[in-house]
Automatic annotation (TrEMBL):
Keywords: Disulfide bond. This is Cystatin-13-like. It comes from the Eukaryota. Residues 15-123 form the Cystatin domain. It holds the Pfam family Cystatin. GO terms for molecular function: cysteine-type endopeptidase inhibitor activity. SMART domains: CY. SUPFAM superfamilies: Cystatin/monellin.
């Protein structure tokens, strides 16, 4: 419910200063938004393994009362278990039965001046 109301505010009544424009995936705030999106995805996932971004297909930024990042990514299950604490250096499974991949769209609102990140949209489909 919080995400829906925040999303309506961001795309509805909030003044859009600059609409979504392409931005390099290497940009520091895009990387921060990707990290946050995957942290939230893995926290909500019922899978016992974590997922990580394997390809960034699109990264865009919109300026409203926050910096909104639209991220289209391919994510894949890796070999690290969810609560192992290890996520950065996890290998992808070689066993085809263990492989799982999704195409996801995330929109993350960032207010770096307040150290705030909020997930506005999380939509994934099997690929």
């Amino acid at each position: 419910m919080v995400l829906v109301s925040r999303g309506v505010y961001a795309w509805g009544s909030s003044k859009v200063v600059r609409k979504f424009e392409d931005i390099p995936e290497t940009y520091v705030y895009v990387q921060q938004a990707l990290w946050f999106a995957m942290k939230e995805y893995n926290k909500a996932s019922k899978d016992k393994y974590t997922f990580k971004v394997v390809q960034v297909l699109k990264s865009q930024e919109q300026v409203t009362d926050s910096l909104d990042y639209l991220l289209e990514v391919k994510i894949a299950r890796n070999m690290c278990k969810k609560f192992s604490g290890e996520n950065e250096n996890c290998l992808l499974p070689q066993d085809p039965k263990m492989q799982k991949m999704f195409l996801c769209t995330f929109i993350v609102a960032s207010k770096p001046w307040k150290f705030e990140l909020t997930m506005l949209k999380k939509q994934c489909k099997d690929i």
